[in-house]
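Give me structure tokens for this 297-residue protein.
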Amino acid sequence: MKNLLVALVILIVLGVLGWFFLFKTPTTPLTTENPTTSTTTEDGTPAMTPDGTAVKIGSSAGGNDINAYHYGTGAKEVLFVGGIHGGYSPNTSLVAFDLMDYLQSNPEAVPEGVKVTVIPVMNPDGLKKVVGTTDRFEASDIPSSAETVPGRFNGDTVDLNRNFACDWQAKGVWQSREVSGGTAAFSEPETQAIKAYVAASHPTAVIVWYSSAGGVFSSNCHDGILPETTALTNLYAKASGYTAHETFDFYEITGDMVNWLAKEGVPGISVLLTNHTDAEWSKNKAGIDAVLARYAN
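Here you go.
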């Protein structure tokens, strides 16, 4: 009788354990609140990160991180870049941060088939020089315009928008002022990071924010404007209310980023904000939404 009771107890324990392992909740959830997006790390290896996680793509001349933020997992990547002129045009980083907040709060804004990448601060050295940080800041942190001029350049005192490989020259022009284009095209770590990123990701379209002329400008490096670039220019301009321009002809520009993109066959536009302080988010949101809708499946 005693042996029978022991055997019965063993059977009950085994039954309970079997039920537990059969029906317990998996330790790895099938879904997460923040979907992951595939990207590559600085050494070119694949990485998986939640939407909005910073992925370092390079370092500045002053040793500050240059980060990209990804939203969505589609095959068609739309790249947005702010802060190429750092603290001289800090509102271009503000609008990029506004975009990141928008996509984080509204993941449905990224259509199926699209991945959005935001590089909010391409020139962290220049931004830090003016507003004291390479991260988020407020418009109230921006000093008077006279104090922002040194923030246009990186830690090597190079104008990064004169350091790309389209008509590059060691001495470039900014308005009536001579500026350094670097010792060679892509001599600067910031432009090297962008070049490597574009080569690895093959973006479908690139939008770069500048200030301040209040318009949308097509890219071109002597081979004519790409048809897709023309479509992007007109689409963003119509939605945002900025004026569309085929070329930037206020003065000669050498080593320009979006013109280099045109040389590489990548559709790209320059969106120039109206001044150096306002992000003009409502205008740019309309332009952004129109561009993303264009590439939706």
